[in-house]
């Protein structure tokens, strides 16, 4: 056994962060359904038609499964060993099984009585099996399927998992795809790799995906480097970003800057005065063209909502989003003292934000970003044509669009602009599989509904004048074969060898 | 390159046939430093071809991107990988876990392991990776209870599942195995379930790249007059046409989660 390299294994960054703590952002999982919540004592949570308190999860490790018991309490459930394949009585096919709706002897009332008695889910499933006249005649496969279906209905098993890009992007795509412009999670995965998102970069992002793309970038950067988020309207929406539960330190490298000041910044007409009068006390985060953004407060009322915002009855939802990383002890605006204190606090925040905007402006003006990510509901062409000016040469950019056509136009305009190479318009399809003995087959093919990506690299504009080759190929994607394929030669066994 | 004897590993100067799926093939003259663009992504000869055995399937950037996200890799992650192979996945992992993470990679083939060590040094990423020459199915990854994620690209991944469980942290972690054939996937899933892994999921990601072209279709002659103005209905339009008609298969990606029981 040989090893090479330096000391293997770094010190753990957050020792013991595998245990759930009060105030943590977690994701509840049941089968393939997810919901993001913040752990708060004595706070009622609804999920999958059940309500319960999360108090009992505190102290357990992430990945622990719980069962909902009467009174809304969660009890940890040990991972049950799969029952060994005892020779179960089973039939060979379904020719004698008649679906007359009468094969289950337990009535709805019987089942309800069992539930009310507090009988556990797996016991109910057992009862259903014993009271089914046709169970014995089903094939083994059909029995498995039956058991699985009943378990799904009667066993309320919930797993508490740690949030991650994987979990949250799957959750959003399944529950609220409209909020993320139908960006499927494999597409997001491509963006992060094509954009070379990693620790130490200085990234520019413009997204209207509830902050999911921003969160994904922050996760990949691990708190190293900086991100400047350009936002439309009154402020960036970061509902999804909050769900990641990043530590406060990650905020140090996160900046935001209003999109509608980009033009002035590019033309050198930007000044600090332009920032002073942003209206901050609206309850809604409004678009400059008047359409509504999502309201943080309203999500609390909606029990089916996928991500529950932390307690805040205050109209200043903007502040809720900014202070998402506050520690659990901080209760929120309503517990502040007098109104005077509140106004002072508000002014302090506004001044802080103004300072941040100026810092962002300075960073942007350096025009040396390591990459650009765009994923919004706006037409991508004007965004790219402007924002690329902030990016250093020889750096990647990735644009996401729900539709292909705007990217076709964008591609053409970028070719005309010049200063871009390796333009690539792509899409990924995702197929999942059922893998079971003698029963393996594909399940779903997801194609066309996950969005499209246009990616490329910047080059120094100066080089362009000398190298006209870069501009000439208006329509082909570059083939970089350095040799002609030698089609005649084949590596194959010679018959006389 | 010899026509007389079979050679196992691709060398510079060889002609390799890349099978891109559905009968589509490209013959490529292998040359150090060269690149070939395929619909699956960019193939770098030095890294992806030279030193690899003929007949192996290659992981392209599309697959690697999905694996990176599904394994939840980030700065600070500790990852175990086998086989090292060309090192293309290793390099991608290192880029993601730096500066605070570490990669433990196991390569059974002595020459390739040595080659990998050299390349990591050349690329100045040696401090983030440890290469071990051993059989992962027999001897595991050489570390225990340290990994956040395990990645397998070997012919018999089911034989390494137990070692993967052992390499992963006690509090849990993520697992991924890449296999070209469904039979391998079936065996791996059985082993995963038996070992106590949960959240089993097998996926395949297929990339499609589009050419952007401006197309003009000629208007038909319906006999309605020769010099009529060109109808706006038949003007040129922009189209994104698929680069190749058929998208090939690289391999199945099987994911799972270890959670403490």
- The CA-CA distance between the termini of chain B, in Å, is 53 Å
What fraction, in percent, of the residue positions of chain A are helical?
25-40%
Envelope shape of chain B: elongated
SSE run of chain B: EEEEHHEHEHEHEHEHEEE
Q: How would you concisely characterize the structure shown here?
A:
By secondary structure, chain A is of the alpha/beta class.
Describe the structure.
The complex is a heterodimer of chains A (497) and B (261). Chain A is an alpha/beta fold. Chain A contains 15 helices and 15 strands. Chain B is α/β, with parallel strands linked by helices and 261 residues long. Chain B has helices spanning 45-49, 61-70, 88-97, 110-122, 136-139, 161-167, 182-195; strands at 15-19, 25-29, 35-38, 41-44, 78-82, 102-106, 129-132, 149-152, 173-179, 198-215, 237-242, 252-258. Chain B has an eight-stranded mixed sheet, sandwiched between helices. Chain B is elongated and about 80 Å long. Mean pLDDT of chain B is 87; it is low at 1-5. At the A-B interface, helix 4, helix 5, helix 6, helix 13 and strand 13 of A face strand 1, strand 2, strand 3, helix 2 and helix 3 of B. Chain A: Residues 1-20, 69-100, 276-354, 472-497 are annotated as: Disordered.
């Amino acid at each position: 056994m040989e090893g090479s390299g330096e000391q293997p294994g770094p010190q753990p960054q957050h020792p013991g962060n595998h245990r759930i703590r009060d105030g943590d952002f977690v994701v509840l999982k049941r089968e393939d359904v997810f919901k993001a919540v913040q752990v708060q004592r004595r706070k009622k949570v609804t999920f999958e038609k059940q309500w319960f308190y999360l108090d009992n999860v505190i102290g357990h490790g992430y990945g622990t499964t719980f069962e909902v018991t009467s009174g809304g309490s969660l009890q940890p459930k040990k991972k049950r060993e799969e029952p060994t394949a005892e020779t179960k009585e089973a039939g060979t096919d379904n020719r004698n099984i008649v679906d007359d709706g009468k094969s289950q002897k337990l009535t709805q009332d019987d089942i309800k009585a069992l539930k009310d008695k507090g009988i556990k889910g797996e016991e109910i499933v057992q009862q259903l099996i014993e009271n089914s006249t046709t169970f014995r005649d089903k094939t083994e496969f059909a029995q498995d399927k039956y058991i699985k279906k009943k378990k799904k209905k009667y066993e309320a098993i919930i797993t508490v998992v740690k949030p991650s890009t994987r979990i949250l992007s799957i959750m959003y795509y399944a529950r609220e795809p409209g909020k993320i412009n139908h960006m499927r999670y494999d597409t997001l995965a491509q963006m992060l790799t094509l954009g070379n998102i990693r620790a130490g970069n200085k990234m520019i992002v413009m997204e209207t995906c509830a902050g999911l793309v921003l969160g994904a970038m922050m996760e990949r950067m691990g708190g190293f480097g900086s991100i400047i988020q350009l936002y439309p309207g009154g402020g960036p929406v970061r509902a999804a970003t909050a769900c990641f539960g990043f530590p406060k330190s990650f905020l140090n490298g996160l900046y935001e800057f209003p999109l509608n000041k980009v033009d002035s910044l590019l033309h050198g007409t930007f000044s600090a005065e332009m920032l002073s009068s942003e209206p901050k006390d609206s309850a809604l985060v409004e678009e400059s063209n008047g359409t509504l953004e999502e309201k943080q407060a309203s999500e609390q009322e909606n029990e089916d909502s996928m991500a529950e915002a932390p307690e805040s009855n205050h109209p200043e939802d903007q502040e809720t989003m900014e202070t998402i990383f506050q520690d659990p002890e901080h209760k929120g605006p309503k517990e502040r003292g007098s109104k005077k204190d509140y106004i002072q606090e508000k002014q302090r925040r506004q001044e802080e934000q103004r300072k941040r905007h100026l810092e962002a402006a300075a960073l942007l003006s350096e025009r040396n970003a390591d990459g650009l990510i765009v994923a919004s509901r706006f037409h991508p062409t004007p965004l790219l044509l402007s924002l690329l000016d902030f990016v250093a040469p020889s750096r990647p950019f990735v644009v996401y669009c729900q539709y292909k056509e705007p990217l076709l136009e964008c591609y053409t305009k970028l070719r005309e602009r010049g200063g871009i190479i390796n333009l690539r318009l792509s899409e990924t399809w995702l197929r999942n599989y059922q893998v079971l003995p003698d029963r393996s087959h594909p399940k779903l093919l997801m194609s066309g509904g996950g969005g499209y990506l246009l990616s490329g690299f910047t080059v120094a504009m100066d080089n362009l004048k000398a190298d006209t080759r870069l501009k000439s190929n208006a329509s082909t994607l570059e083939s970089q074969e350095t040799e002609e394929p030698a089609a005649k030669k084949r590596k194959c066994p010679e018959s006389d060898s | 390159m010899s026509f007389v004897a079979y050679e196992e590993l691709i060398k510079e100067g060889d002609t390799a046939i890349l099978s891109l799926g559905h009968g589509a093939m490209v013959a490529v003259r292998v040359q150090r430093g060269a690149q070939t663009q395929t619909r699956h992504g960019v193939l770098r000869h030095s890294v992806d071809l030279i030193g690899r055995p003929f007949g192996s399937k290659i992981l392209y950037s599309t697959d690697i991107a999905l694996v990176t996200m599904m394994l939840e890799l980030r700065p600070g992650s500790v990852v175990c990988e086998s086989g090292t192979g060309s090192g293309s996945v290793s390099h991608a992992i290192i880029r993601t876990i730096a500066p605070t993470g570490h990669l433990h990679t196991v390569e059974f083939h002595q020459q390739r392991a040595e080659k990998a060590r050299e390349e990591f040094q050349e690329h100045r990423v040696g401090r983030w990776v440890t290469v071990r020459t051993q059989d992962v199915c027999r001897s595991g990854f050489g570390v225990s209870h340290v990994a956040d994620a395990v990645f397998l690209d070997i012919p018999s991944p089911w034989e390494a599942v137990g070692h993967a469980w052992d390499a992963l942290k006690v509090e849990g972690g993520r697992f991924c195995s890449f296999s070209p054939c469904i039979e391998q996937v079936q065996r791996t899933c059985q082993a995963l379930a038996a070992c106590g892994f949960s959240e089993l999921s097998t996926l395949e990601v297929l990339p499609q790249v589009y050419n952007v072209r401006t197309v003009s279709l000629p208007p038909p002659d319906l006999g309605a007059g020769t010099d009529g103005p060109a109808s706006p209905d038949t003007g040129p339009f922009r189209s994104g046409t698929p680069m190749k008609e058929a998208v090939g298969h690289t391999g199945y990606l099987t994911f799972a989660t270890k959670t403490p029981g």
